[in-house]
Amino acid sequence: MDLGLRERAYLVTGASSGVGLATARLLLDEGCSLAVCARDGDRLARELGPDGDRLVTTAADVLDPEAVARLTDAARRRFGRLDGVVNNAGGSLMAPWPDTTRTQWREELELKLFSVLNTVEATLPLLSASDAGAVVNVNAILARQPEPRLAATSAARAALLNLTRTLADDLGPRGIRVNSVCLGLIDTGQWRRRHEAEGGALDYTRWSARLAADRGIPLGRLGTAEEVAFPIASLLSPRSAYITGATVDVGGGVGRYV
Ligand code: NDP
């Protein structure tokens, strides 16, 4: 099926690894133009290749509104348009609430909220001019199913889910759709780093299989970044023109709410 993305332009944050990288590769394969960022610009260029007619890479921290504005401006100058944004950059803080400092609480909230507010504010004029403006916020099933070992991240994810709904209400009349993709456990750099940090006896394959069993994932395994990229691309697609304010879970069934 043609998703209708060809010759459209998108901005993807956190595109040097995991879900962001898989999404960027899928959108490039679909014939889109892309403006992408991560803090480490060298790794970004290594993963996605040199800038060209359809690719603008910028080293930018999504928490820096001026850097996000520069990225947006580079996209406008190169492509003359932006049809959507994938707010993917981020990470998580593994800590129960009594071990979480006030600074960490603030940093988690700041990362989850301002990473989205900064890009939406910067790109709004371009998204408004598109005939198919769309924002996809990469979130976590933790937003609705908090985990005590990820206290601040769970709360910040819930705040982002709430904000996404507000943005959908507010931007719908301008023709911009805003949706969430909520992840369960996806096999990316995040989990590889955690495995290394634990320095345990199990190799990664066995460690991740045990993780999936411990978390009771009905499909019995972690997901792949590519399995997240497709639902993101499909929510960006103009074929999803009547979907806004929605949440798509990509978690192999780990979300136990109804
Ligand atoms: P990875 O760690 O593999 O990749 C994260 C990407 O984001 C990298 O490109 C990183 O590059 C970039 N990044 C991080 N912070 C910033 C920042 N402040 N500004 C710009 N870029 C940034 O993560 P995943 O692919 O696993 O995760 C993608 C998203 O999905 C994240 O928001 C994550 O929290 C969320 N998620 C992931 C889950 C999982 O199981 N993998 C589960 C639930 C949610 P650099 O370091 O160079 O900036």
Descriptive account of the structure:
- This protein has 8 helices and 9 strands.
- By secondary structure, it is α/β, with parallel strands linked by helices.
- The chain has 2 domains: 9-186 and 224-245, 3-Layer(aba) Sandwich (Rossmann fold); 187-222, no CATH class.
- A 7-stranded parallel beta sheet has the order 3-2-1-4-5-6-9, sandwiched between helices. A two-stranded parallel sheet has the order 7-8.
- Strand 4 (84-87), helix 4 and strand 5 (134-140) form a beta-alpha-beta unit.
- The longest helix is centred in the middle third of the chain and has 28 residues, at 102-129.
- The mean pLDDT is 97.
- The structure holds NADPH dihydro-nicotinamide-adenine-dinucleotide phosphate.
- NADPH dihydro-nicotinamide-adenine-dinucleotide phosphate (NDP) binds next to helix 1, strand 2, strand 5 and helix 6.
- Residues 8-166 form the Ketoreductase domain.
- Keywords: Oxidoreductase.
- It comes from Streptomyces uncialis.
